[in-house]
Amino acid sequence: VQLQASGGGLVQAGGSLRLSCAASVSGRTFASLTMYWFRQAPGKEREFVSQLSRSSVVADYGDSVKDRFAISRDNVKNTLYLQMNSLKPEDTAVYFCAASNTYSRYLSQGSQPDYWGQGTLVTVSS
Questions:
Q1: How many Cβ atoms sit within 10 Å of the Cβ of residue 55?
Q2: Cα torsion for 44, 22, 114, 109, to the nearest 10°?
Q3: pLDDT at residue 4 above 90?
Q4: Cβ atoms of residues 87 and 16 within 8 Å
Q5: What angle do CA 97, 125, 11 make, to 5 degrees?
């Protein structure tokens, strides 16, 4: 599984961005993968942003992005999305998409993804 994130850029506080993550899969289907977004700000540890189950039934968010960000997927286009609204300067980070072959809820079990993509930089100016 190869993941390619895109859509980052510079945006003013209060603005919106939509990140995309294109997946190339071999021997499995995109629909069988549990998908994630993480982020890492300069000098900080990697932070969980969101997780989406295979069937999009369960979507979880980190506390800092809840009610502002929305995760979604298109299993025909093999693409994961992250709609980010009401952006704040503290959202500035490199955003990574990731995937797992199985599903366990990250917020309760801390399950780590099996695959990681390269990051895309989001910068929110004040």
A1: 11
A2: 60
A3: yes
A4: yes
A5: 55
**For the chain, percent of residues with pLDDT exceeding 70:** 100
Cβ neighbours of residue 39 closer than 8 Å, sequence gap 6 or more? 46, 47, 49, 91, 93, 94, 95, 96, 122
Torsion of CA 75, 50, 92, 88, to 10 degrees: 110
Tens of pLDDT, residues 24-51: 998 889 999 999 999 999 999 999 999 9
CA pair distance 83, 72, nearest whole angstrom: 8
CB-based contact 5:20 (threshold 8 Å): yes
Q: What is the 8-class DSSP label of residue 106?
A: H
User: Tens of pLDDT along 43-87?
Assistant: 999 999 999 999 888 999 999 999 999 999 999 999 999 999 999
Distance separating the N- and C-terminal Cα atoms of the chain: 37
Beta carbons of 118 and 4 less than 8 angstroms apart: yes
Which token pair is 15? 């603005």
| Overall average pLDDT of the 9-35 stretch | 95
